[in-house]
Design brief:
299 residues, alpha+beta, Tick-borne Encephalitis virus Glycoprotein, domain 1, 4 helices, 24% strand
């Protein structure tokens, strides 16, 4: 029996194609890695150049600073006197010897001082300038100490006067502030001002109190303060975070002195206090001063 012939040609072609494909893949991968390494080497080279330039710049700056420092050191150095020993050979008288030896000359060492070089005029000029500056600094320091002492004295005097004025004003205010209804009655008996007591609840509506209208907007019971809205001469004003027993002074157009409002009791959403105003208006005072004296007798 004869064996059939196997198709070897297609198998060989397939092997060659696979080999070519593998070679192409290897060549592509090699090219990719070569390009990437080339770019990396270029980047490293540019980075090295930048670092070298920066290093050269820093070295130049350091060299410039060193030169300046050396120049300053040279300008400030003072040549000092130097003593240099010199050797002087002098003949000595022959000394007799029993052996009839020769007479030897021995060197004699003497210290000869060199003449000090003349002072540098530039250094003398620098010394003079430094001395003048030290004198000016000492004079300025003395003037500053004197001015500071005078200023401290003035400040102490002004502080004492201010403390005395504040204490006097505090005493006057404390004596004129009513803490209770009985205190308001006592102030009314003086006859110097008109007093209006009020009791306000938290509301947006206004309540008439003497010459103004008042509205309680907020109460802080913990800190004993409150916020008010006021209608004064057809204008609305606001007073915020007013403490209990703190007087609120309000200036009116037809009053010779300010109106005083004081809250002497703070409760939850409620306040109690009083308002005082001058006894007479400006118009009443001007009318009393300009009115003719009817009791005067005609001459």
């Amino acid at each position: 029996m004869e064996t059939p012939n196997l198709p070897t040609a297609p198998i060989a072609r397939t092997g060659v194609l696979l080999l070519l494909i593998a070679l192409c893949g290897i060549a592509g991968i090699s090219t990719f890695y070569f390009v990437r390494e080339h770019k990396q080497s270029q980047q490293l080279a540019s980075t090295n150049q930048a670092l070298t330039a920066n290093l050269n710049q820093v070295q130049g700056q350091l060299q410039a600073l060193t030169d300046k420092l050396n120049a300053l050191t040279t300008a400030q150095s003072v040549p000092a006197m130097q003593s240099v020993p010199t050797t002087v050979t002098e003949p000595t008288s022959p000394r007799p010897s029993a052996m009839g030896a020769r007479v030897h000359k021995k060197p004699v060492h003497k210290m000869v001082a060199r003449k000090a070089p003349a002072d540098d005029p530039r250094w003398n000029q620098v010394q003079g300038q430094l001395s003048d500056q030290q004198k000016q600094l000492a004079s300025t320091r003395e003037e500053m100490e004197k001015s500071r002492a005078e200023l401290d004295g003035r400040l102490n005097s002004t502080r004492d006067e201010l403390n005395g004025s504040i204490s006097h004003t505090r005493d006057e205010l404390n004596s004129s502030i009513a803490r209770t209804h009985e205190d308001v009655v006592v102030l009314q008996k003086r006859g110097e001002r008109n007093y209006y007591e009020f009791h306000l609840d938290k509301s947006k509506t206004f309540q008439r109190v003497g010459p103004i209208s008042v509205s309680l907007r907020k109460v802080n019971l913990k800190h004993k303060n409150y916020n008010l809205a006021l209608m004064v001469d057809d204008a609305q004003l606001e007073k915020k975070n007013v403490n209990m027993l703190e007087p609120v002074w309000i200036t009116l157009s037809d009053r010779p002195q300010p109106v005083e409002l004081v809250v002497n009791e703070v409760r939850k959403d409620q306040i109690t206090g009083y308002l005082s105003e001058p006894k007479y208006k400006k118009s009443e005072l001007s009318a009393s001063t300009t009115a003719p004296d009817k009791t005067a007798q005609p001459q």
